[in-house]
Specification:
It is a single chain. The chain is elongated, with a radius of gyration of 19 Å. By secondary structure, the protein is mostly helical. The protein has one domain. The protein is 81% helix and 0% strand. The chain is built from four helices and no strands.
């Protein structure tokens, strides 16, 4: 197996795992929001809801990136794989066809940046959930 194919497969698998875990966490946090009801201030609950929806959106983005990488695995070469991804993005109107194809490692770096942002939002949201639960207990 070629190195680019192994890298693409490994990245695709990791993206699916991370997206699934953070989506499950977001659903759990939404459940906590429902259970909290009228506990914390409305603004605080709205901020938690916004962070949770952001996590869900980022999870969908990661699943989409994993699907694009899966599409690239059907190609015979790295260049053909990247070109098929670019064509798909162009056909969907999400990104115009670039003059020069971005290397695989730059694409993977982009997904890692998205993962870091997603985990930052997750940490902030979990901190807000813990604060809400502790606030509800009272002195």
């Amino acid at each position: 197996m070629s190195a680019w194919r192994a890298t693409l497969m490994q990245t695709r698998s990791r993206l699916k795992i991370h997206a699934g875990l953070t989506m499950a966490a977001a659903i759990a946090i939404l459940s906590v929001l429902v259970i909290l009801g009228s506990g914390p201030a409305l603004e605080f609950r709205l901020a938690m809801l916004a962070c949770t929806l952001l996590m869900l959106g980022q999870s969908i983005h990661l699943f989409f990136d994993a699907a694009l990488f899966h599409l690239g695995l059907a190609s015979d070469s790295e260049e053909a794989a990247l070109l098929s991804i670019d064509r798909t993005l162009d056909a969907m109107g999400l990104r115009p066809m670039p003059g020069q194809t971005r290397p695989l490692m730059r694409r993977i770096a982009g997904t890692k940046r998205l993962l870091r942002r997603q985990y930052l939002v997750l940490c902030i949201t979990l901190a807000m959930v813990v604060f809400s639960l502790l606030e509800g207990r009272g002195p």
